[in-house]
Amino acid sequence: MVFLDGRTTAGAFSIRSYEQTGDYSANLSINYTAAPTNNAPVINLDTESPTDESTDNSAPITISVDIDDSDGDSIDWWLNASEDGNRSYYNVDSGTDSDGDYTISESFDGSDYNATYYWMVHVTDGTDSDTEYFSFQIEQNSWDSTGWLTADTCTAVGWLNAAGDGVPVASDLNADDSAYAKDTLTSSTDTGYLNLTDFDVSIPSGSDIHSVQVKIIEYANQGSVVYHNYSKLLDASGSPTGDNITTGNDGIIVLQATYETNLLPLNGSTECDWGASLTETMVEDTDFGVSLKWGFDGGGGREVRVDYVAINITYSE
Fold first, then answer.
1. Residue 281 lies in a domain
2. What global pTM score does this model have?
3. Beta-carbon count within 10 A of 17 CB
4. Which of 14, 224, 243, 282 has the fewest Cβ atoms within 10 angstroms?
């Protein structure tokens, strides 16, 4: 039996056999080449960006890390990301580096503020592999907001005030109190448009506008479903602009005989620009605002009441 110690990579040896009389009877010559040791590719820790578990990052962000293979082998790599705590990873990018020395780099939106993002890198040279996991947060205070603002002007065609003796005015919708605007729906009809403008917005000159939220306290009577079927922003000329973000029965459902506080967009996101080209001068204009309408597909009369409407604008300088 012959043992090789792993340090010799090539050579030759022979084996001879002898009879008991000492006479030579056979000779076996062997040439050999030992397989070289493979060095696994590595993901270089401390080269990742952003730094693992960092919290002071701004969006959008570029994530990157260095990989190498000391043998110079070709490396296949995968970059995966997850935006939830359950680490449900999806592939962001993948590729092959031919010379064993590479920086993986990819732009990442990272627009969900104060959320933790997870990312992982897997590399292999076909024989050995390496996998590393990283995480980071986008800074909560990257954007500022106006806080909740109420309107100074209300235009409400077909609506009445709480007493039913006149059209509603802006003050009817500026507080959660006994004053409100109301409209009555009959079978398969809609309310009139409830337009609120002049929110006294004041933000730093040249700011970028990222989002507009709308908060509404609302009510519908007689135990039937009434829903938002129209919600749009009004531009600096008072004209509807961008997307209708509540359509049909996908809109907010107003529960029976119960005042509900709801947010638009529906998930309360601070990352919705309503598909409009929002600017600082637009949102500060007295004609800027929001236009709302409700619908009902059933039979009989249904009264819709709106007690409070306010907007919150998110921006950065």
1. yes
2. 0.59
3. 9
4. 14
**Residue 163 reports pLDDT greater than 60:** yes
- Tally of domains in the chain: 2
- Residue 142 pLDDT > 50, yes or no? yes
Which domain, by its residues, includes 65?
42-142
Say whether both 89 and 78 belong to one domain.
Answer: yes
Which of 82, 111, 142 is the last residue before a domain boundary? 142
Q: Does residue 4 form part of some domain?
A: no
Residue bearing tokens 């732009």: 107
Bond preceding residue 265 cis, omega within 30 of 0? yes
Burial of 247 (0-12, 13-18, 19+ CB in 10 A): middle
* Residue whose structure tokens are 């001879």: 16
Beta strands 54-57 and 129-138, pairing class: parallel
Structure tokens at 226: 């009434």
The alpha carbon torsion through 243, 246, 250, 252 (nearest 10 deg) reads 160
Per-residue three-class SS string for the chain: CCCCCCCCCEEEEEEEEECCCCCEEEEEEEEEECCCCCCCCEECCCCCECCCCEEEECCCEEEEEEEECCCCCCEEEEEEEECCCCCCCEEEEEEEECCCEEEEEEEECCCCCCCEEEEEEEEECCCCEEEEEEEEEECHHHCEECCCECCCEEEECCCEECCCCCCCCHHHHECCCCCCEEEEECCCCECCCEEEECCCCCCCCCCEEEEEEEEEEEEECCCCCEEEEEEEEECCCCCEECCCCCCHHHCCEECECCCEEEEECCCCCCCCCCCCCCCHHHHHCCCCEEEEEEECCCCCCEEEEEEEEEEEEEEEC
- The residue whose two tokens read 């309107």 is 151
